[in-house]
Amino acid sequence: MRIVDERAAHYGGEADGYANLHRIAGLWSAYLGAPVTARDVCWLMVLLKSSRSRQDGGANPDNTLDGKGYLELAERLQ
Q: For the whole prediction, is pTM greater than 0.85?
């Protein structure tokens, strides 16, 4: 997916973003005191993007684009 590749190039060249998702999962797990997977991170970010999109009435297409990217990553992690 284009957005996954674009974000990877912008945020350090990770081809798939997996290392970052696993890093976030580790941080969230430590903070929450409960296990969080990289796939959980993707789904939670989809919810965040959905909330933002609802708040601005869908005016910022970046929320939809990023949401699609997180869904793509979640699928790859399945």
A: no
